[in-house]
Amino acid sequence: MDLIEAMRSQPANRYYKPDPVPTEVFHRAMDNARFGPQGGNRQPVRFLIVTDPAKKAQLAEWYWIPWSAYYEQAIAAGEAMQAESGDVMATKAVMTKASMVAANDFAENFANHPAIIVACADLAETHPTDTDLGRLSIVGGGSVYPIVQNLCLALRNEGVATTFTTLLCLFEPQVKELLGIPEELATAAHIVAGYPAKPFPTKLTRHPVEEIAFLDSFDNPLTI
Ligand SMILES: Cc1cc2nc3c(=O)[nH]c(=O)nc-3n(C[C@H](O)[C@H](O)[C@H](O)COP(=O)(O)O)c2cc1C
Fold this sequence. Notes:
This protein has one domain: NADH Oxidase. By secondary structure, it is of the alpha+beta class. Strands 1-2-4-3 form a four-stranded antiparallel sheet, with helices on both faces. It has helices at residues 3-8, 23-33, 53-85, 97-108, 145-157, 172-179, 209-212; strands at 45-50, 115-122, 161-165, 185-194. The protein is globular and about 50 Å long. The relative contact order is 0.23. The protein contains seven helices and four strands, in the order H-H-E-H-H-E-H-E-H-E-H. It binds flavin mononucleotide.
């Protein structure tokens, strides 16, 4: 499919058909995804595709713990703000109440999604250059997430939808033990994958270019 179309229509998919994704489809997607960049070409990323129902059920149980706490708090905050301003979820965050409800349905059904791909990374093989700046280090992720996003796009190209999640990273020790993930690997994301129950959207909600890109100076938005 067209690259631009894939980039613009690859949402956090909340509803899946039960059909399994064939192994060859995953293989093709991984084969394309692996060409992403990484510091020093050290290739720290590993993927584990989980389809086993018992393992997914355990992952779903863990996922529900942080999700349900987050959801309750987000809904309460949204209602408070709505009461105050009359505006639904009038926050800087742009998840609408409908998208929160869909994310909650997704969480409730976590065990039933066809596959959960655990993206792992050997952090010793990343090259973080920002660890001494007195703030959260972000550069190491640059050796991991481009390949994860490549995978989501490569799956989109195969008609497979995905949802990028990170809440399960809270349970990294338990997840590693459950899945036999090697000691040296960290869990970077858990990508739910399967055929979408509804057609892919044609447009996602994002800030316009002028709000996120600037030319030479931050008081000069990139416009045409
Ligand atoms: C770093 C990161 C972490 C995320 N973690 C979760 C998660 O744990 N659970 C979840 O339901 N969605 C998660 N998402 C999905 C986001 O909610 C989603 O990308 C965002 O709301 C935009 O959705 P859209 O592409 O459908 O418009 C995560 C996305 C990113 C990039």
